[in-house]
Amino acid sequence: MMLNYYQRQRIAKIYEEKDSVFSHLNTDEVVESLVADGLYLGIHLPDSWVREIREFAERNNCYGDGDLRLSFAYKERLAAQSAYGQSFRLGKYYNASLLCPAIEKLARDPKLLNIAAKYLKVESVHAGSWLWWSFPPTVAIYESTAAIGQVFHHDLEDYRCLRFYFYLSDTNLANGPHVCIRGSHRQKKLAYLLSLWRLRSEQDVIDYYGTSRIVTICGSAGFGFVEDPFCVHKGLPPTEGDRLILAIHFSINDYGVLGDRDDSLLLNSSQLT
User: Fold this and answer.
1) How far apart are CA 138 and CA 239, in angstroms?
2) b/e per residue, 36-74, with b = 16+ CB within 10 A?
3) Rounded distance between C-alpha atoms, residue 146 and residue 128, angstroms
4) Residue of 144, 149, 103, 158 whose CA lies nearest to 243
5) Which residues are CB-neighbours of 184 under 8 A, at least 6 positions away?
6) What does the domain layout of the chain look like in residue ranges?
7) At residue 159, does pLDDT exceed 80?
8) What angle do CA 224, 12, 233 make, to 5 degrees?
9) What's the confidence (pLDDT) of residue 41?
10) CB 263 within 8 A of CB 127
11) Are 226 and 37 in contact, with CB atoms under 8 Å apart?
């Protein structure tokens, strides 16, 4: 449902937008697209911000498939895989929103906050930020693919929530682009809503929504988009090259379920460089 004029004016006054990094963004246009499609494309992160976040990612250790026992520097991934005796599908960073100033500033950007507030209809909460690499798989295993979001699914982290994504590496069809079913936040099978199982097969999604609503999102480093995670979506596994991506989450409540933080790592000197 579209916000009425009074609600728009009241919520829009929460944050002054003059200091936003996204001077080109029209917040009302973004919100209208989110209401209709659950998706808005074309939020561009400046090159200097991309460089700063990439430097953070190259300077700090990530964790193989999110496992705290499998720490490695990105440039040493192949050596780490050999040492640990296993291949990684992703390299996840913890505490990025605390330790990377650029990510922390993005989570406080007034236009992003206003978009979230207008769409969620309340002053939103920054629930966390994910930063991770996706690597080309060596073995196609359905279970591990599902576990890292590479099968169609929708998310239920709160009653309502919103995610801003930014590619930090050039991402084409071979590099693991994000895929979203346009408008699926407002239309789901009753079976989808009643089932505790949120993973959907490709064929089931195509049969219900058709191919015309499948949006495969490619873009150069710095390309961003915002999505209602109640939309059916997935990340394609890369077939060549590695993909670095940032996701910033806003919601009505913060239930601490995102798994983007680990306080035990804050004493680790490699996370404080």
Assistant:
1) 10
2) ebbbbbebbbeeebbebbbebbeebbbbbbbeeebbbbb
3) 21
4) 149
5) 38, 154, 209, 213, 230, 231, 232
6) 30-271
7) no
8) 35
9) 98
10) no
11) no
Token match 């490619």: residue? 218
Tokens representing 146 are 């599902």
Spatial separation of the C-alpha atoms in residues 131 and 95, rounded to whole Å: 9
Amino acid (1-letter code) at residue 121: K
Backbone angles phi, psi at 7, to 5 degrees: -60, -40
pLDDT given at position 141: 46
Least Cα distance to 93 among 273, 250, 252 occurs for 273
Length of the chain: 273
Task: Give the tens place of pLDDT for each residue, 51-66.
Answer: 999 999 999 999 999 9
Tell me the two tokens of residue 251: 């919601």
Distance (Å, rounded) from C-alpha 51 to C-alpha 183?
33
Domain 30-271 has CATH 2.60.120.620: yes
Distance CA 260, CA 273 (A): 18
Structure tokens of 232? 């059916």
Rounded (to 5) percent helix, strand, coil in the chain: 35, 25, 40
pLDDT one-digit tens code per residue, 98-119? 999 999 999 999 999 999 999 9
Contact criterion met (CB below 8 Å) for 118 and 12: yes
Can you say how many angstroms the Cα of residue 234 is from the centroid of all Cα atoms in its chain? 10
Nearest CA to 249 among 138, 85, 113, 144?
113
